[in-house]
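Backbones bend. Shown next:

***
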Amino acid sequence: METLKTVTAASERHFEIESARLAALYATGILDTPPEPAYDAITRLAAEHFGMETAAIGFADETRLWVKSHWGESVRERPRKNSLFEMLLEKNAPVVVTDLPSCTGYSPSALHFTHGGYVFAAAAPVRSTGGSIVGSLTLLSARKREALSADEVRTLESMAEMVANLLELRRLKQNITRQQVRRARVAEARAAGNTWPRECDLRRALERREFVLYYQPEVDLATRRIMGLEALIRWRHPERGLVPPMDFIPAAEETGMILPIGDWGLAEACTQIQVWKNEDPRNGSLRVCVNLSARQFLREGLTDHVESLLQQSGTSSRQLGLEMTESSLMPNMNTALEVLGGLHTLGISLSMDDFGTGYSSLSHLHSFPFDVLKIDRSFIGRMSDGDQALQIVRTIIELARVLGMDVVAEGIETRDQYRLLRQMGCRFGQGFLFAKPMPAEEVTNLLRLPGRVLPDPDGAASCVA
């Protein structure tokens, strides 16, 4: 009993420290921002002073390292887990590693930041004014080197302090504006009678692993065989029960918590894919699709981050699908094309979600390397009401055929909808007629059905629960 109390107290203390660290990090406004020359000056100075091939300044939120500046070889984003940054947190002091390949307990790709064969690394913490470690100044070399002397370590710390000073200037400059925006948001929320969840509620939920993924099967409409799954997030709140995404995703978007929550969802889906594949090698053909928010999709380094998650989990790229809406693509076409191109090169399936409800820019659609169009449930639900919705669905199916894409109809709830979609040549679908979103353990039971074929829903007018 005493041991349990000690573990609980240590867990609470860790949560308090991490919450303070993240609060200090977000107060700087440094994440998800364009490059700033002032930081490049520091990385260049550090690399030249110590004679290193690469220097980088990075900041770590809940799940990943954000590289703000680098000098030398291009530095890629990496998951935070088992990284050099976590070594800094554990030691709460500068870290010098003279033989990276033999560093046990840590991921080489995370330690190295890139795919380069680095053998030496030195890092100094970048601290907030309150002393929390929010980032790091890291030196990397592919050549064997002796450990830094005490004077050299102090010099590296001084350079990290220069980064911290720039962060403090940034925080002070935007502090007044931030307070004004916060007051306006609070007033708006109170006027609407909605003050939950707050940013701290979402951060605590992420820390305590209260978020869970539910999965809804995507089936071949001709055979009812499960071909894939869509991952859908839920919040298993200790007091409020199972909270649907519509009750917390808008707050996550507004506060910026959608980024770490989204990163968690991607990592969790990759891990679960591997679990199902290990249980039955035939599940290696199964694809799990994850929804990306607009902020996730347009974030720099997304392709590298996804590639790293696949490597860490051992998941094949063909088993991961990413879904994004039309509205997340159109504001910045050039960035969208670049990101989609990188993800497509990895071999990841790309789906345009809720097609027909956004910009419907058909003139641009052929430029995007999408594999799948998902017909929004609002059209499926109105197919039996008249010719207009039916014609829209038929047009989307034909458009996809011409462009060489698959089609998935969302929200199939009745036998009539099921029949009409098959008559129009829609190959795939999902909806309550076949299966509702469910926890991973329930999906496991479905995957054990002969041929992964779901029971025939014949005779059920609706399976809406």
Residues 460-465 have pLDDT under 50 and may be disordered. The longest helix spans residues 150-191.
